[in-house]
Design brief:
Helix content: 40-55%
Largest sheet: 2 strands, antiparallel
Strand content: under 5%
Shape: elongated
Order of helices and strands: HEEHH
Structural class: mainly alpha
Bound molecules: zinc ion
């Protein structure tokens, strides 16, 4: 599992993913403008579209992080008496709408990062000649 033959290690994939950078070359941002992802990297040509519906997983990440990082703390603040019911309801409502927008870019980058973290040999920088009887998945 740790025997990567290429140059891009899993830690480098995570580092690039957390910075919204191309997982293959790390030089180019994934996005042009606010919310438009490059279909392929302008630097190395890596396609960021890995099939129809690929980025549906990023919605799951976005949802999960919104709940865990925003809504649960609001609930805890309400339950401990820091927030009144009205304050908690307004904070949760507004936050549930704004947090996913703010986190949109990171959720897409994290999803791409997760894909290549588990399948680092799919990166062009990590490709190598296959041994006899071996397929792309090891
Ligand atoms: Zn690239």
């Amino acid at each position: 599992m740790n025997a990567l033959s290429g140059e891009v290690t899993r830690s480098r994939i995570v580092s690039r993913g957390l910075r919204n950078r191309c997982p293959n070359c790390g030089q180019e941002p994934l996005f042009r403008g606010g919310f438009q992802i490059h279909e392929s990297c302008p630097g190395c040509g890596l396609s960021h579209e890995l099939g129809e519906g690929f980025f549906l997983g990023s919605m799951s990440i976005n949802y999960g992080v919104t709940v865990v990082a925003f809504l649960v703390p609001v609930l805890v603040l309400y339950l401990t008496g820091v927030f009144s019911g009205l304050t908690a309801a307004v904070a949760a409502g507004v936050g549930a709408l704004l947090f996913p927008v703010v986190f949109y870019r990171s959720s897409r980058s994290w999803w791409l990062m997760a894909y290549y973290f588990f399948l680092p040999h799919h990166l062009p920088a990590n490709r190598r000649e296959l041994d006899e009887g071996e397929d792309e998945n090891g």
